[in-house]
Specification:
Elements (H helix, E strand, L loop, with lengths): L44 E3 L5 E3 L5 E4 L5 E8 L4 E6 L13 H7 L1 E6 L18 H11 L5 E7 L2 H10 L4 E9 L14 H12 L1 H17 L1 H11 L2 H7 L4 H12 L5 H11 L12 E7 L7 H10 L2 E7 L11 H9 L13 E2 L1
Parallel strand pairs: 5-6, 5-7, 7-8, 8-9, 9-10, 10-11
Antiparallel strand pairs: 1-2, 3-4, 4-6
Helix pairs in contact: 1-11, 2-3, 4-5, 5-6, 5-9
């Protein structure tokens, strides 16, 4: 079944050939159905300053939100599979879904990966709150004629995943957190985090302005010296993550994803950094559904203390703590992770189960 065939004109997919995203590897975007129009969007992004390579934005998939904004997205995996809306971290983009796209295709999952407002090719929404995001997700699902769908995300996607669980629980089949970054004000949740990242978070918690400065610096570096950002991120990782992060294809994937995150500058990521550091508008205990939580025991960006906190305060958390792996441990295990999370449907939350060891 082609989900776009009867979609209204304002919601039809706008697609760019995967080859247009220079340096992107792995599972390609799902094919664009015939008979749909192709429309220009924004301008190209250049990675690495003058002489760098180009990420084309000439043609992208998008839907129009009820308020007139454009929400860009891409699709990966099995086009006839169980639909999941993939939510990227901070800063990141729809391209982050490529990390799990091959596994999605193998296990029968269709990934729908939008850019949140101000990222990639999605229009900005400067006044938004976390609870505005479920409305965008619902509008995207309606445009694609999806009555029910799962949500899955990594790292800084946690508040956006949980906002959907709070605001639109009846639409969700599954809720899955991979290497999640939850609220940072809770005492002890940064125990075990690498020192540099923890210091930045503590400064941002004291002053939201610092979060904006941080993102502005990242945006400038991503534009002119993306390889420097990559090397810095690599240096923060434990050895088990470096093996994944610096593996074949992953380097270019991360460079392209990072550049796309800052395509429109730092305003979108800065807004999200502030939202993450301040009140979310709901508490973890407000989440009414069962939630799958995957956590690597050696993760230094989202330490196990954070995973334990999510497990404790989300009433329906089903946590899997995996020994001897870090933040990116799910990448090489994603077939198994999909099988595990598909066993945790988003029913009304029951008593929390004990954490399992994979």
């Amino acid at each position: 079944m082609t989900p776009y065939a009867s979609a209204p004109a304002h919601a039809r997919g706008l697609y760019s050939e995967p080859s247009a995203y220079l340096g992107a590897r792995g599972n390609a975007s799902l094919p664009f159905p015939t008979g749909q129009s192709l429309v220009p969007a924004l301008t190209d992004a250049v990675v690495g300053g003058p002489g760098g390579y180009v990420i084309s934005s000439s043609l992208v998939r998008s839907v129009t939100m009820p308020d007139g904004r454009t929400l860009a997205y891409d699709e990966y995996g099995d086009p006839d599979g169980l639909p999941f809306v993939f939510m990227h971290g901070i800063p990141s983009s729809r391209f982050a879904a490529r990390m799990i796209a091959d596994a999605a295709a193998r296990v029968g999952v269709r990934l729908i990966a939008p850019d949140r407002p101000g990222y990639g090719c999605s229009d900005p929404f400067p006044s938004r709150t976390l609870l505005d995001w479920p409305r965008d997700v619902e509008a995207l699902a309606d445009a694609l004629h999806l009555d029910e769908f799962g949500v899955i995300g990594i790292s800084g996607a946690v508040p956006y995943l949980l906002a959907c669980a709070v605001a639109i629980p009846d639409r969700l089949s599954h809720v899955a957190i991979l290497s999640g970054l939850g609220p940072l004000r809770e005492p002890g949740v940064m125990e075990g985090m690498n020192r540099e990242t923890a210091t930045l978070y503590r400064l941002a918690l004291r002053s939201p302005r610092m979060a904006r400065v941080w993102m502005a610096m990242l945006a400038k570096t991503a534009k002119h010296s993306p390889h420097l950002v990559y090397r810095q991120q690599l240096g923060y990782l434990p050895e088990v993550d470096r093996a994944v992060f610096d593996g074949p294809g992953m380097r270019e994937h991360r460079l392209v994803d990072f550049a796309e995150a800052f395509r429109q500058g730092a305003d979108g990521p800065s807004r999200e950094a502030v939202l993450h550091m301040t009140d979310w508008g709901f508490a973890l205990c407000d989440v009414p559904l069962d939630v799958f939580v995957w956590q690597g025991a050696l993760d230094r960006h989202h330490p196990i203390a954070m995973g334990r906190y999510l497990e404790r305060d989300i009433a329906g958390a089903h946590a899997v703590f995996v020994p001897e792996v870090g933040a990116f441990g799910f990448v090489d295990r994603m077939d198994e992770v999909f099988e595990q999370l598909l066993d945790v449907p988003a029913r009304a939350a029951a008593l929390t189960e004990p954490a399992r060891r994979a």
